Structure formats: structure tokens, C-alpha cells
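Duplicate of #3305? Posting structure anyway:
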């Protein structure tokens, strides 16, 4: 399974970017479709693992397929942050986030230019929720896995459903004052995007 994980991750990244490109060409925002793809992959991962129970053989075809669904979901999550949530910190690479956060704190405290300190403060305000959410998500995931085993996969699947629902509600509100242009040229709801990003961090 480990041998397949890297090529599957790369393949899923490529297909995700291809899907986002198609959506961009037809003038559609990519965030909601990508969240739906991630949700479906996590639900499939959960279904295969939960149906096998504690007796799941890690070398059985069912386990391999389940693992590849999980890897693909992780790839989609990483890609959608880069494609659809430009202003949201990474939901997976916490080393980068923590480094950026500490440097920004230093710039706020010791920076000589007020404009640089203001930008650093804004970045820090965006980054700290991702760090805290990641820590909470890791703790809850470990506790759930200890308590209920593979059924703990319902936790990230549930958070993915929450992300998808929040994005639909944010789009439905259609507040023109809260929108920004995303990296592919489509409108991105800032408040909805930040909430989705934080929930996705927990799911990661």
C-alpha cells in the first residue's frame, strides 16, 4: 500500500487541478465541487473501513482501495487550499504555518515599519486559527480512534460535510461586500472560506 500512496497522491492532485481548470473555463467556482469530491472520497473511505470492522486485513484489496481513497481525499484537501482558498493558511503543513506565525509575531513586536507590522498582524490573525484547529483535530482524532477504532473516520467525514454545507450557505447569501477574487479568477467568499478552511484543518 505504501508503494501506491505516492503515485496515487500525485494522480489525485493532477486530476483535482484538471477539474478546477475545467470549472474555471466554464466560469464556475471550484471550491464547492472540490469539497464535494473530498466528502465523497472520505465517505467511501469510511464505508469500506467500517464495513470490514476490526478484522480488516491491511493487505486485502478492500484495505488497499480504502487507503487509496483516504490518500486521494488528502490530496484534494491540499489542492483545494492552493486553488480555491488563496487567503487561507495551509490545512496540512503545520511546520510552515507555525514558522510563518512566529516570524509574523516577531515582525509585529520588533518591526520598524508600521505597514510591515500591520501586514504581519493580519497574517498572524489568519494563521493562528489553523494551528489551533489542527491541534484540536489531532487530539479529537486520536481520542476517537482509541475509543471507537475505524469508526473514528466518521469524524473527518462529518467535518467535510460541514465544510460543504457551510460553503453552500455562504454562496447562497451572496453578500457582494464579502467576496474576493480567487486565484483562478472566480469569486471567493472570505468569511465562508475562512470557516471552511478551519474545519478542513480539523478534518486533516
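Output from current build:
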Amino acid at each position: 500500500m505504501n508503494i501506491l500512496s505516492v503515485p496515487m497522491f500525485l494522480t489525485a492532485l493532477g486530476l483535482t487541478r484538471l477539474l478546477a481548470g475545467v470549472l474555471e473555463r466554464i466560469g464556475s467556482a471550484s471550491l464547492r465541487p472540490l469539497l464535494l469530491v473530498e466528502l465523497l472520497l472520505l465517505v467511501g473511505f469510511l464505508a469500506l473501513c467500517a464495513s470490514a470492522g476490526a478484522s480488516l486485513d491491511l493487505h486485502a484489496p478492500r484495505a488497499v482501495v480504502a487507503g487509496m481513497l483516504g490518500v486521494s481525499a488528502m490530496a484534494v484537501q491540499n489542492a483545494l487550499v492552493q486553488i480555491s482558498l488563496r487567503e487561507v493558511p495551509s490545512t496540512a503543513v503545520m511546520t510552515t504555518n507555525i514558522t510563518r506565525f512566529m516570524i509574523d509575531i516577531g515582525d509585529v513586536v520588533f518591526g520598524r515599519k508600521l505597514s510591515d507590522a500591520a501586514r504581519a498582524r493580519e497574517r498572524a490573525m489568519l494563521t493562528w486559527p489553523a494551528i489551533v484547529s489542527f491541534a484540536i483535530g489531532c487530539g479529537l482524532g486520536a481520542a476517537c480512534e482509541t475509543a471507537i477504532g475505524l469508526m473514528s473516520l466518521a469524524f473527518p467525514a462529518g467535518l467535510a460535510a460541514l465544510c460543504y454545507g457551510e460553503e453552500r450557505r455562504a454562496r447562497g447569501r451572496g453578500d457582494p461586500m464579502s467576496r474576493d477574487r480567487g486565484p483562478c479568477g472566480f469569486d471567493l467568499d472570505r468569511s465562508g472560506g475562512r470557516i471552511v478552511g478551519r474545519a478542513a484543518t480539523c478534518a486533516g
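Confirmed duplicate; merging threads. The chain has seven helices and two strands. The chain has a mean pLDDT of 81.
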